[in-house]
Amino acid sequence: MRFLQGTYGIDLLSLLLLFLSSLFNLSRYTRIVGLAIFLIAIFRVFSRNIYKRRSELNSFISFINKPLSKFGVSIPINLPPFDLNNLSYVFRIFENKIKEKKNFKITKCPTCGQKLRLPRKKGKIVVTCKRCSNKFDFKT
């Protein structure tokens, strides 16, 4: 176990790189690209420069969160290196966001910007903001 002591370890980006390398290794024409991606992933796992690997992971997660934010989902940036409990936590968040989008509509108060969760399929309703007590009409 001392062999891995002080190394960065496996994180979300390393797992994605390993997955991509296995996809590129399916064809003999792209095998060199797959090998290069695999070596980058292994380098990240055994790297002792934890600060740089962490900043790479944060920039990757912020890049991924931009398209995911259109669906109201995001990956938390403060995930520690790979842990099965954290991975199940991320999937649980995705699942809850999808269930919530089905039953509720998220809107912002026009005055203070507070996020409000409104039930869907209720027609036109009068919404009262919890923060500033502003009343406004909203169609759900």
TrEMBL record:
Keyword Membrane: yes
Key word Transmembrane present: yes
Residues that span the membrane, as ranges: 7-26, 32-51
Keywords: Membrane, Transmembrane, Transmembrane helix
Protein name: Zn-finger containing protein
Organism: Clostridium sartagoforme AAU1
